[in-house]
Amino acid sequence: MTDSEKAENEMADALEPGIAPETGDPAGEPDPFVVLEKLQAENAEAKDKLLRTLAEMENLRRRTEREVADAKIYGVTSLARDMLVFADNLTRALESLPAEAREKAEPAAKAFIEGIELTQKDFQSRLARHGVKKLEPQGAKFDPNMHEALFEIPDENVPSGTVLQVVEAGYAIGDRVLRPAKVGISRGGPKG
Predict the structure, then answer these.
(1) Going by C-beta distance under 8 Å and a sequence separation of 6 or more, which residues neighbour residue 167?
(2) What pLDDT digit, counting tens, does each position of 10-57 carry?
(3) pLDDT in tens, 58-78
(4) Contact (CB, 8 A) for 76 and 172
(5) What is the DSSP secondary structure assignment for residue 142, as one 8-state letter?
(6) Where are the domains of the chain?
(7) Please, what is the end-to-end C-alpha distance for the chain in angstroms?
(8) Which of 27, 133, 155, 159 suits a disulfide with 20, CB 3.0-4.6 Å?
(9) What global pTM score does this model have?
(10) How would you class 173 by CB atoms within 10 Å of its CB: exposed for 0-12, middle for 13-18, buried for 19 or more?
């Protein structure tokens, strides 16, 4: 039996002719103070339920907005992570060609190399358009959240823990690391 059904039964009992249970007096009508107290209690209970429901709905609305915003920002994470291999391969292809070979290359080969460079720039700009940015840690202080240290380089001229060499570029999407930069850090200098 629900609370409202209980209250209706109590009201019906109070309205029955006979003796009022609260006062012991013959009653054709219930005691108005008892009825008022019951109605006030029901009103307080309904108001409490309403306030709790409104607070719960507001929390749900905020959580849903946050989840939608996160889905917009981070929805391309797995695709972007897969595309990083393509970006790395373009970079490796360009770095594998020595500068002197570029200069001596025939015009058709030079055009091909320029095409690869343009493709790399275009691809980086498309990644950036979707919130993926390349991490530039060279010369920065080592951050274990953004970098993966592969080795240490003894150098007393720079503070310890400074990134001296980037082996593989890192990327972030929004404020999350997509792939940490693989780096070599300094050792032996003054503390940073």
Answers:
(1) 150, 182, 183, 184
(2) 655 555 554 445 555 555 688 888 999 999 999 999 999 999 999 999
(3) 999 999 999 998 888 888 888
(4) no
(5) P
(6) 131-192
(7) 71
(8) 27
(9) 0.62
(10) buried
